[in-house]
Specification:
Helix content of chain B: 25-40%
Oligomer: heterodimer
Number of helices of chain B: 3
Radius of gyration of chain B: 25 Å
Distance between the termini of chain B: 28 Å
Distance between the termini of chain A: 12 Å
Strand content of chain A: under 5%
Largest sheet of chain B: 5 strands, mixed
Number of helices of chain A: 18
């Protein structure tokens, strides 16, 4: 077996700082990535607590748990936390940890910029949530903060200003981390690791980062102008203001949904390849489909504005519906990868399968709401709430857990408990469908989103109670997961370098990897170099 | 007088959504069954040692599959456009014009001849309309963005400050429908209280109502 020394391995890397300074200021991509993931997960739990409060208020048609103002703040900070502080940082954080390993690099490019991103995420979270401590409470304008509801006369509290500043910081953080990741992929690939030999997960991170650096500047502009508007007036004055804000916001707001989806599609894809024992099927068409998907996602934003009467509905219906083509290619590749494989139903693989099964509901309802006449009924109702939770929880979060069960042993050196993982999986599947499926019927029956009460429609109570029960099951599933992490770290079952029979370079090195990542690298002739090494014939010289 | 063809948004929605729903159910069933069959067929059994088999790419098959997907997309877009052009058509000669003004947190309806239907925060206003005739709406907002939604008609349009949105609706059924209209764009504290009633009268009864109200003002 021929091996090449990892590039840069001969250069003595300065030993990583431990302790508090290391935890706060270290730029090693593994420590940085792990810190981002832990912080993002903490925000996921915090946003989940708000969701539980919302679902508790909706148990009865009356207003009986929180005040209207607090309810409005709850769903605003729930949505904002889940997007800006959880799913986007989580997407790039997982990339920061894994991409240098998958491409055979000793570290990430622009580590200090990445570190700044980590700090900005933390600062954004503290800033946004400190709104709850201010007089008037946290922002209560919805996660997209439409102007003019978000101006000073309509939302005078300082909580809204803190919310804007938090989004600016979170947006800059995402751009900083995405730029670092793109630079890493461009500059730091190991010899032989061509772009088309990058594994599926790294490719999903590349398209994610491309979308971030293209779309997030529009968010920065929208929020900066909103801040100026609130302090001094001006930018959004006049009759064009409300639509201008929406154009800027949704130019960011649609791609961000895919930012919260692609990396977890990548994680599910890696689980599917690993636990089928086959390389990812149709790698080149898959990469091409991803690029088409990402490019297409930049020209569908105004399907969020079908009912404004201010956009060309037909154009955006056309582009949005076409996205089913690249999405369909990804499903085909996943199914074809499993076909003929030797499928091991580990917790990671179960979550990956759960991802493909559950996301499909989000996908077909996405095609549904891409049709203006159908969207006129669905938008701003519980139908749309059901749809995007199926994409972001049924897709994003299930894929995230497929990745966590797959890579936790690599990061910590300890295996997670499979039994608890399967309990976690089944509770999650029950919870997701119980929580979000009834919402389709509520929306179709006329229940608007962002209602703290529904006294005029007592018939909606049964469906709402089912949904709330699902939310509590999800809370229970997360407790099982946290218990699993605790048990697995306290009573460790050592993972070794490659517990699953992995195919990509991160499984070549110790768990956790040493500071310089690799002592040696195998020859890289495909997107599954370790599989090549085990199998020999294909691609061997 | 040439009246525009009356477009029933509810039945238009029913037609399009039935097609979409059948295709969606078919796709979901097909994909779920395929995935489940693959997992069952190729699952690793305890004590079994076999090497994975099968191709790692199949360009002709994937291209053919993409063509099928594109045809499905083209079909959906065509159906959507056909329905959309009916639902979004605005007649130049509606049987009645109603000016709707949305403001926190109530609806105001203005009719020809200075007739106004207004409400208060705790007393929703009532939209009175004739049945089976095209009613042309002009929609304005005074403060923040609201949205005019009558779930039974499967139709919604945003009310945006500084911008007038126009649309036509048909009310097929006569009757009084309390709370049939709601605001669906989040508009602040009393968003969930911002609703209106709909009273749909047969055309003759509606004209009589309008004349009576015009006489009173």
């Amino acid at each position: 077996v021929s091996v090449a020394a990892a590039p840069g391995a001969s250069v003595q890397a300065s030993p990583p700082r431990g302790g508090l300074i290391g935890a706060l200021a270290g730029t090693d991509h593994k420590s940085l990535g792990a810190r981002i993931v832990v912080v993002a997960f903490a925000f996921f739990l915090a946003g989940g607590v708000l969701a539980a409060l919302i679902r508790t208020e909706l148990l009865t048609p009356q207003l009986d748990v929180v005040s209207r103002q607090l309810y409005n703040a709850l769903f605003t900070i729930h949505g904002s936390t889940m997007f800006y502080l959880f799913i986007v940082p989580m997407a790039v954080g997982v990339g920061v940890y894994l991409v240098p390993l998958q491409i055979g690099a000793t570290g990430m490019a622009w580590g200090r910029l990445g570190l700044a991103g980590f700090w900005l995420v933390l600062a954004a979270g503290v800033t946004m949530w400190s709104g709850f401590l201010t007089q008037g409470g946290a922002a209560a304008v919805g996660w997209y903060g439409f102007y003019p509801l978000s101006d000073v006369p309509n939302s005078p509290g300082i909580g809204t200003d803190l919310w804007i500043l938090a989004i600016l910081m979170a947006g800059l953080a995402a751009i900083a981390l995405a730029a670092s990741l793109l630079a890493t992929v461009v500059q730091r690939r190991a010899p032989g690791m061509t772009m088309l030999r990058l594994p599926p997960f790294t490719w999903t991170i590349i398209v994610t980062c491309l979308m971030i650096v293209t779309a997030f500047p529009a968010l920065i502009v929208a929020m900066t102008l909103l801040f100026i508007q609130r302090q001094f007036g001006g930018p959004y004055d006049g009759s064009a203001g409300p639509i201008t804000y929406q154009q800027l916001f949704w130019f960011f707001g649609h791609p961000v949904v895919y930012v919260g989806f692609f990396p977890f599609l990548g994680a599910a894809a890696e689980a599917v390849t690993t636990f089928s024992g086959k390389r990812w099927f149709g790698h080149k068409p898959f990469v091409f489909a991803l690029l088409v998907f990402a490019a297409g996602s930049m020209s569908v934003w105004a399907h969020h504005m079908f009912t404004t009467g201010a956009v060309n509905n037909r154009y955006f219906a056309f582009t949005s519906t076409l996205l089913l083509v690249p999405a369909g290619v990804e499903y085909f590749d996943a199914a074809a990868t499993m076909h003929g494989g030797r499928i091991r139903l580990t917790a990671s693989m179960l979550f990956a399968l759960g991802f493909f099964f559950t996301f499909l509901i989000g996908g077909v309802t996405g095609v549904w709401v891409a049709s203006p006449p159908l969207d006129y009924q669905a938008t701003d109702s519980y139908f749309i709430v059901a749809h995007f939770h199926y994409t972001l929880f049924g897709g994003g979060v299930l894929g995230l857990f497929a990745g966590i069960y797959l890579w936790f042993p690599k990061v910590t050196g300890a295996l997670l408990r499979e039994g608890l993982g399967k309990v976690h999986f089944w509770l999650t599947m029950v919870g997701v469908n119980l929580a979000f499926f009834p919402m389709f019927f509520l929306g179709q029956d006329g229940m608007p989103r962002r209602y703290p009460e529904y006294t005029g429609h007592p018939r909606w109570q049964t469906l709402n109670d089912l949904s709330s029960a699902g939310a509590y099951v999800l809370a229970l599933s997360l407790l099982v997961f946290i218990a699993n992490v605790g048990v697995s770290l306290l009573v460790r079952r050592p993972a070794g370098p490659d517990p699953w029979g992995g195919q990509t370079l991160e499984w070549m090195t110790d768990s956790p990897p040493p500071p310089h990542n690799f002592d040696m690298l195998p020859p890289i002739r495909s997107h599954a170099p370790l599989l090549d090494r085990r199998r020999r014939p294909e691609g061997a010289a | 007088m040439s009246l525009a063809a009356v477009v029933d948004t509810r039945s238009e929605f029913a037609g399009l959504s039935t097609t979409y729903l059948l295709i969606a159910i078919g796709v979901v069933a097909l994909v779920w069954l395929a995935l489940a069959a693959i997992v069952v067929r190729w699952r690793a059994r305890p004590g079994e040692h076999r090497a994975p088999v099968g191709r790692t790419s199949n360009a002709p098959l994937e291209v053919g599959y993409v063509v099928v997907l594109t045809c499905v997309a083209a079909l959906l877009v065509t159906l959507t456009f056909r329905t959309e052009s009916k639902v979004d058509a605005v007649s130049s000669h509606p049987a009645l014009r109603v000016h709707v003004i949305a403001a926190k947190w109530r609806w105001r309806f203005e009719y020809p001849g200075g007739v106004v239907q207004d409400g208060a925060n705790d007393r929703p206003s009532t939209l009175v309309v004739p049945t089976r005739e095209t009613v042309g709406f002009a929609l304005d907002a005074l403060d923040v963005i609201h949205a005019f939604w009558i779930p039974d008609l499967r139709f919604k349009r945003d009310a945006i400050p500084g911008r007038t949105n126009r649309f036509d609706l048909d009310f097929p059924r006569a009757g009084y429908f309390p709370g049939a209209g709601v605001c669906s764009e989040f508009c602040g504290l009393l968003h969930s209280q911002m609703r209106f009633n709909v009273r749909a009268l047969p055309p003759a009864a509606f004209r009589a109502w309008l004349r009576r109200r015009q006489g009173r003002t």
